[in-house]
Amino acid sequence: LFWLRAAVVDNIEEASRLLSISTHVITASLDSQNILSREKEQLALPPFTVERSVSNIEGIQSLVQPIASFNGMLEEKPAKFYTRIAERLKHKQRAITAWDYERLILEHFPDVYQVTCFPNMTSRNPDTPGNVMLVITPRGDKAPNPVEPMASNELLYEIKGFLKDYTSTFVNFEVRNPSFERVKIICSVKFNVGYSSGFYLQELNNQIVQFISGDPLTNQRLDLGGRIHISDILSFMRTFPYIDFITKFSMLQTAMDIRGNYVLIDTAHEGMEKDFLVASKSYAVLVPATNHQFNILDERQDEMPEQSGFADLEIGSDFIID
Fold first, then answer.
1. What does pTM read for this prediction?
2. C-alpha to C-alpha distance for 81 and 199, rounded to whole angstroms
3. Strand (E) or helix (H) holding 129
4. HEC profile for 231-291?
5. 8 A C-beta contact, residue 233 and residue 294
6. Are the C-beta atoms of 217 and 146 separated by less than 8 Å?
7. φ, ψ at 227 (rounded to 5°)
8. DSSP code at position 299
9. Whole-number Cα distances in Å, 188 to 2, 155, 234, 249, 306
10. E strand spans, 6-73
């Protein structure tokens, strides 16, 4: 038996979450493309697809495929071939412009869905000539949390090592995940007669989460530096047949500024009321909080939104002691 202990000394917020530890692990490579002859081509083999070996292996009782396949590429179609050749002729295997950085990474790393290059800046300083920051987004089916898709540290290091052969030695570049800033909805609602408040409260929460995040599994582009308007959320909520009345509406945004300090932005902040929230950084993405806060009304009564206090915050979400 072997006891393992791992610890993070510095920059714990940058460490990837450990999902599992497995023993007796091997990697297998696809031997023939005919094995994947399906009606619909897939880039990755889903988890738990491989269940047994072709023939019995002495000493092996069972096989488990806990994660999807990786680094696989589909057969190149003519349109993709011409696109790749045209891009190759343009960037000439050299990363000079922002476009060059993005196309080189997308071509060599099939698990990456979106790359955004920010020249002359770092995550700590928006005006730093000679630096390049690359924000990586993996495919939605490759991320443990599709609402906040984050590439593993291993992938980020691989990309950084790959770029060293195609960039000038005088360029410093940073490869990172987007910064996710959670948005929490706070409001009072009145349900129509005949709708259970318990069930439809959870339904309302789930629908708002889906509306703000979109559908990450369809690999929509992340809206870096985007904004959310109160009017859009209210218009969406009013389409639900079980909602009769909405009031006291406000939004909370939990963010980390460019200096690394946490900030709480409230649309109902006294004297600074606003009708929208915007990402605090150009490489930040607004995502929904897991749980939103709703107060059930028995009858219609207009209420003005109030600035949130300690009672409105949740540990692990927007109540943060820095």
1. 0.76
2. 51
3. none
4. HHHHHHHCCCCCEEEEEEEEEEEEEECCCCCEEEEECCCCCCCCCEEECCCCCEEEEECCC
5. no
6. yes
7. -140, 160
8. S
9. 54, 44, 12, 7, 11
10. none
- Helices 230-237 + 197-213 axis angle, to 10: 140
Give per-residue pLDDT as tens, 86-116. 999 999 999 999 999 999 999 999 888 899 9
Burial class (CB in 10 A: 0-12, 13-18, 19+), 124: exposed
What's the number of CA atoms in the CB half-sphere (13 Å) around residue 125? 8
Q: Is the dihedral of CA 184, 189, 192, 194 positive or negative?
A: positive
Closest CA to 106 of 118, 94, 116: 116
For residue range 47-83, list pLDDT tens digits in order. 888 888 888 888 888 888 888 787 777 778 899 899 9
The amino acid occupying position 296 is I
Distance of alpha carbon 246 from alpha carbon 30, whole angstroms: 55
The string of DSSP codes covering 35-51 is: GG--SS--SSPPTT---
Q: Residue 230 corresponds to which tokens in the numbers above?
A: 């109160």
Contacts of 96 (CB under 8 A, 6+ apart): none
Check: CB of residue 116 under 8 Å from CB of residue 176. Answer: no
> Which residue type, as a one-letter code, is found at position 143?
A
- The runs of H, that is alpha helices, within the chain are 78-91, 98-108, 153-163, 197-213, 230-237
Q: How many angstroms separate the first and last alpha carbons of the chain? A: 39
